[in-house]
Amino acid sequence: MSYRRLGDMVKFISNKNTDGNATVLFGINIDKFFMPSVANIIGVDLKKYKVVGKYQFACNRMHVGRDERLPISMSTFDYDFIVSPAYDVFEVITSDVLPEYLMLWFRRKEFDRQCWFYTDADVRGGLHLEALKSIEIKVPSIEEQRQIVAQYQSIANKIKVNEQICEKLEATAQALYKHWFVDFESVNVTTLQDYIITNPTLSLKKGDIANYTEMSDLSANKLSITKPIKREYNGGSRFQNDDTLLARITPCLENGKTGFVNFLSNDEIGFGSTEFIVIRPKSFVSPFWIYCLCKDADFRAFAISSMIGSSGRQRVHESYLLKYKYSIINEDMMNKFHKSSTVIFEEVKLLNNQNQKLTQLQSLLLSRLAVGEEEKRKITV
Predict the structure, then answer these.
(1) Which of 72, 189, 351, 376 has the smallest count of CB within 10 Å of its CB?
(2) What is the DSSP secondary structure assignment for residue 370, as one 8-state letter?
(3) Mean pLDDT score of the chain, rounded to an integer?
(4) How many domains does the chain have?
(5) Distance between CA 291 and CA 301 in Å, rounded?
(6) Using CA atoms, how far apart are residues 360 and 354, in angstroms rounded to an integer?
(7) Given a cut of 50, is residue 374 above it in pLDDT?
(8) If you ran DSSP here, which 8-state letter would residue 275 be given?
């Protein structure tokens, strides 16, 4: 086992999309995954863009100093796609290094810290190509690389399975909501003011240590809130378990960012972004009904239509949401919905907790890529 320079193991390439066959354009997010680009490419000559093939890497060295990480990813797709001409594309050229192992090394926090250390003094903090090539990577035997990759992939597969189960469970809850509360005609109508409270009064003193949730912790397609952290309270929205957090600012509202609070202890108060509207139920209303309401297309369209403010910083005011017209709810039906949804939401919480522990195990595995064999044997999957 030895350390080797990245530049000695890979070749940087610049295959342009000259034939125009590749039409899918990807960017790279800070979590080191390829994602569909949001760039406007109308009228853009895509023949100048770089082609990325399977097991090839692409990276963006421009903002490493600012973001404190290098956006880099390896393609596992069975088709070629294109990336920005500003990206670097490279591939492994030695038979004793697995591309998948190299990608695991790139996921290490220690690798990002090293890249950040080598950035220049520019405001954006670019990473020079020669500095990237000079970074040394520990390369074990090919057999050990396969074992490490297999361990990591087994964890990733379990996380993916859990996420798929959660997605189906949430779809079931939404279908129950739609069946019992949306798909019928009713002449008896009221407003949401009868059913919900927005931004309830909760007490936190400045300087108190509490769980904090930021906007990036909310997802557009799942109820679980990720990575709450402990920090001093200095203002913001306040919430407790069974509250729903609705993003009220553009583009987060349009994108569907919504979260269900279930990670606090009894009577604990958490806080978060000022751009959350905290919603909780009144009287017999189920908290799960609130979350499903906030994910309902008609409700979201109503909220979006009411946004005010300058372009790019538009918001919906919580008082407007209270005016949303809704059929008068049968209490027995609400109780049945709550009973059915409780099982669903509890299972989602359980699976999300499992995934958090599995993610921690992934991080542990990555952090120990550079340690000795005896230490690695302590990691069990």
Answers:
(1) 189
(2) T
(3) 92
(4) 2
(5) 15
(6) 10
(7) no
(8) T
What is the C-alpha to C-alpha distance for residues 65 and 72, in angstroms, rounded to an integer? 14
Domain that holds residue 295: 166-348
Residue at token pair 């950035």: 119
Q: What is the pTM of this model?
A: 0.83
Residue 276 lies in a domain: yes
Q: Which two tokens stand for residue 13?
A: 């390439």
| Exposure b/e, 92-111, CB count within 10 A at least 16 = b | beeeebbbbbbbbbbbbeeb
CATH of the domain at 18: 3.90.220.20
Q: Which of 134, 137, 155 is nearest to 369 (CA)?
A: 137
End-to-end CA distance of the chain: 23
Tell me the backbone φ, ψ of residue 165, rounded to 5 degrees.
-65, -45
Q: CB-based contacts of 233: which residues, under 8 Å, 6+ apart?
A: 204, 205, 206, 207, 208, 209, 210, 212, 271
Reference 289, options 330, 319, 251; nearest CA is 330
pLDDT digits (tens, 9 = 90+) for 257-268: 999 999 999 999
**Residue 295 backbone phi and psi in degrees, to 5:** -95, -5
Instruction: Dump the DSSP string for 241-255.
Output: TT-EEEE-BTTHHHH
